[in-house]
Amino acid sequence: MALGFFRGGGSPTEKNIDPELRESPNSAYDTETLGENRRMNRIDRPIARPIVVPGQGEDSTPLQMSVGKQMELEQDNAIKYRTCGWFKTAALLFSEYICLAIMSFPYSYSVLGLVPGLILTVVMAGLVLYTSLIVWEFCLRHPEVRDVCDIGQMLFWGQKWAWWFTGVMFILNNTFIQGFHCLVGSKYLNTMTYPNHMICTVAFSAIVAVVSFFASLPRTFSGLARLATVSAFFTFLSVLLAMIFAGIEAHPAGYEPGNEPLVLSIPKASTTFVAGMNAFMNISYTFIGQITIPSFIAEMKNPRDFPKALWAVTIAEVIVFSLAGSIVYAYTGTQYNVSPAFGSLGNVTFLKISFSFMIPTIIFLGVLYASVSARFIFFSIFQGTVHMGSHTVVGWASWAAILAGLWVLAFIIAEVIPFFADLLSLMSSLFDSFFGFIFWGLAYLRMRAADHGPYFWKIKGFKGLFGAVFNVILIGIGLLFLSGGTYVSLYLDCPGS
Q: Where would a tag sit more exposed on the chain, N or C end, judged by fewer CB atoms within 10 A?
C-alpha cells in the first residue's frame, strides 16, 4: 500500500498566520540546517509561537521562528530561555537517565537471564538513540516547538484534539514519575529511621513532596543544570557502592545456608509471558525518556549540538546499566533479588550507605519532570505576555501555584499505587508506547514525505524502503507496549496473580 497517507497538510491553529502563507509550509518559516548542504522541509506550518517573547519595544512576529531570531528577541528579557549549551543539556539528560531505576536491572536480569538481559539493554539503548535523533531532527525542522505536545499536534495535521490528547498523557506521565519519587523518598526515610521512626509512611511522602516543590521553583532548565549534575554524580556513586557492597558482603539478604545464589544465563523454562514482559518493561522504562527532549532542545542556544549530549549519555547508559545489572545479579542471584536491588544487600549498614547517595536523584528527578510539566502549563497560559520574560508577581505566583497543584496530585498518586516494579511497568505500557515509539515512527514517515513526497520509499531506493519499513516496525513495537504491557500491568495488579 502506498504511503500517500503521509502527504503534508492540515490547518494551523495560530490565528495570526498570514493567509498568503497557507499554500506552502516552507515559504516563509526558518528551519535549522543539518550539515552544510541539507536543507530540511517542514511537515506543516507553525501551530504555535516559540517560547520567547520580545523585549521592551521589540516587534513580535510569529513569521521568524529560527533559533537565532528567538535569542535576539529575548536578549533584553530578565528571564531568558535559550541559554543551555550542550554541556548543560547533557547534565539534564544524565540526571534523567542515570537514576534509581538502574537498580531494577538486577531483578530484570534474574527473570530474563543474564544474556538476554544484556542483549535487550543494548537493543533498547540503540532504539532510543535512534528515535531521539528523530526527535532532534523534527525540532530542527520546526524551531518554534516548545514541547512534545506541539509535536503531537503537528504529527496529526494540526488537529487540536491531538494537542489535548498528547497534553493529558504528558501531564499524567510526568506526574506519575513525581509520585513514584515521593513513594521512593518515603521508603528511604523509613529505611533510615527503622525501627525507631515515629512518623508514618504517608507523612514521609508528604515531606518529600514539600521539599521537591521548593526545589522545582527555578523557571529555566539552565537554572536546574547544576542540580542535575549533582544528582547524576551521586546516583553513580550510589550504584557503584551497591555493586561493591554486593561483592564484598558474605551473603545477600534472606540467604539460606546451602542455597547459594543462582545466576542464569537464560531464563527458566517456567518463566511466564507476564513475568518476562514485566522485566522487559522495567528495562525499557529506564531508557525511554524522549518525552523531555523537545523541551530541552527548546532552551538550547545551538540545537545542532544536541547529539553530543545524546551520544555521551547513551554510552554511559549502556556501560552503567549493564555493569550494575550483571554485577549485583551475580552476587545476589535469582533467589535473593528484589527491586530496587538495595533490598538485596544483607548488611543493613551497606544498604543504608548506598541508598543514601540516591537522595539527590530521589528529589531531583521528580523536580525535573515537575518543571517540564509546569513549563507546559505556564507557557500555554501566558504565551506572549510580559509574565514569560519578566519577574512579575503574577508570573511567579502562577508558576508556584502550578507546581503546588502538580505535587499535590503526585502525592495522591504515590499513596494509591505503592508498588515499585509494577508502577514502572504501568507507566511504560500506557505512555512510553506513544512517547517512546509511535510518535517517532510517524514523525520519520512524515518528515521523509515532506522532503521527497508521499512515495519517498520508492524514490529513495533501498534506503527509503528500509527506513519506511523500520519505522513502521517501531510503531508496531509501540502498539506491543500499549497492548501487551497494559495487560501485564493489570494482571500483576490483580489479587492472586
A: N
* Euclidean distance between CA atoms 157 and 162, whole angstroms: 9
Residues 6+ apart with CB under 8 A from 415: 183, 202, 205
Question: How far, in Å, CA of 4 to CA of 351, rounded?
Answer: 57
Check residue 146 and report its DSSP letter.
-
DSSP 185: H
Residue of 140, 497, 475, 99 lying closest to 313 (CA atoms): 99
**Dihedral (CA of 92, 226, 324, 175) sign:** negative
Angle (nearest 5°) at CA 240 between 237 and 245: 120
Cell 512534545 belongs to: 148
DSSP string, 32-99: --SSSS--PPPSS---S--S----TTPPP-TT---HHHHHHHTTT-SS-S--B-HHHHHHHHHHHHSS
Q: Which residue has the cell 496529526?
A: 156
Contacts of 23 (CB under 8 A, 6+ apart): none
The full DSSP string for 246-311 is: HHHSSS-TT-BTTB-----SS--TT--HHHHHHHHHHHHHHH--GGGHHHHHTTBS-GGGHHHHHH
Q: pLDDT per residue over 374-428, tens digit each?
A: 999 999 998 888 898 899 999 999 999 999 999 999 888 877 765 654 665 676 6
CA angle, corner 449, sides to 447 and 450, nearest 5? 65
Instruction: Confirm if 378 and 402 have CB atoms less than 8 A apart.
Output: yes
The reported pLDDT for the residue numbered 25 is: 52
The amino acid occupying position 316 is A
Rounded-to-5 percentages of helix, strand, coil across the chain: 70, 0, 30
Burial of 230 (0-12, 13-18, 19+ CB in 10 A): middle
Q: Is there a contact between 235 and 357 (Cβ–Cβ < 8 Å)?
A: yes
Residues whose CB is less than 8 angstroms from the CB of residue 59 and which lie 6 or more positions away in sequence, other chains included: none
Cell output for 399: 508558576
Q: Do 324 and 164 contact (CB within 8 A), yes or no?
A: no
Supply φ then ψ for residue 216, to 5 degrees: -85, -5
pTM: 0.87
Give bridge partners of residue 84 from the DSSP assignment: 300
Handedness of CA 459, 464, 469, 471 (dihedral sign): negative
> In this model, does residue 281 exceed pLDDT 80?
yes
**Pick from 18, 9, 119, 99: nearest CA to 62:** 18
C-alpha cell at 36: 552544510
